[in-house]
Design a protein that fits this description.
Layout: H1 9-15, E1 44-48, H2 54-62, E2 67-71, H3 78-88, E3 93-96, E4 112-118, H4 136-145, E5 146-156, H5 159-171, E6 175-180, H6 196-203, E7 209-214
Parallel strand pairs: 1-2, 1-4, 2-3, 4-5
Antiparallel strand pairs: 5-7, 6-7
Bound molecules: S-adenosylmethionine.
The site of S-adenosylmethionine (SAM) has 18 residues, from helix 6.
Length: 215
């Protein structure tokens, strides 16, 4: 997909650099050291593919007792996350400005209390299926770094990707605690924090799929 060029990105990054995790692989097993002492035992949550950051920033604001890591590799997109974190002055959010390929390089066993995947790239060609963030190989990789009993939550407008992801959870032997085909018409709607893509697709009348996988 062609990326819109963000002209003032260097200025945004310079102004909001305090939200960057500069050496994310070096933070493996010691993420808490990036945050104030009050967060020493706070649970750690990540979103992979945060886009412009509306979801993860609003989650961090809504749950000030948790630590959040936004992960976004697109250089013309991630500065928007820094901008939002700066506007809200979030003490509990940092950004990994990289494409996460192997999560075990960033997190040690059981280090995470939650993973969010929102409107992940569909990679529609069969030969690219292994790149989908809900491919069985990825689900098994998340399992390694998640604390037992914690959850991955996945939202998408893409019905085919959603069906594929359910199959992959089954292949991984994981328990799916919730499957909702129309999140905005469900009882979870009231507490749902929307992403930028979600607002766009829901605004066009598309149903939003939601699943919760327990590790
Ligand atoms: C379709 S957009 C959705 C953005 C946002 N989650 C939303 O719902 O508005 C997917 C984003 O995920 C990012 N992305 C894809 N794979 C990634 C990965 N492995 N690590 C980090 N970011 C990734 C892309 O750069 C893109 O910005």
């Amino acid at each position: 997909m062609r990326q819109h060029v963000l002209r003032n990105k260097e200025k945004i990054i310079e102004k909001n650099g305090r939200f960057l995790a500069d050496d994310p692989k070096g933070c493996r097993g010691r993420w808490h050291s990036l945050f104030d002492d009050g967060y020493a035992s706070a649970p750690l949550y990540i979103e992979i593919g945060s886009g412009k950051g509306q979801f993860i920033c609003n989650m961090a604001k809504a749950h000030p007792d948790r630590i959040y890591l936004a992960c976004e590799g697109a250089v013309n997109v991630y500065p928007r996350i820094l901008q939002k974190a700066g506007a809200l002055e979030l003490p509990n959010l940092k950004l990994i400005r990289e494409y996460i390929i192997d999560p075990s390089e960033y997190f040690e066993k059981g280090e995470l209390s939650g993973v969010y995947l929102n409107f992940s790239d569909p990679w529609p060609k069969d030969r690219h299926a292994h790149r989908r963030l809900t491919h069985v190989s990825k689900l098994l990789a998340y399992k390694e770094i998640m604390a037992p009993g914690t959850a991955l939550e996945f939202k998408t407008d893409n019905d085919a990707l959603f069906d594929f992801s359910l199959e992959q959870a089954d292949l991984a032997g994981l328990s799916v605690a919730a499957v909702i085909r129309d999140l905005h018409a469900s009882e979870l709607a009231a507490e749902n924090i929307q992403t930028e893509y979600e607002e766009k697709f829901a605004g066009e009348g598309k149903n939003i799929n939601y699943m919760k996988i327990i590790f």
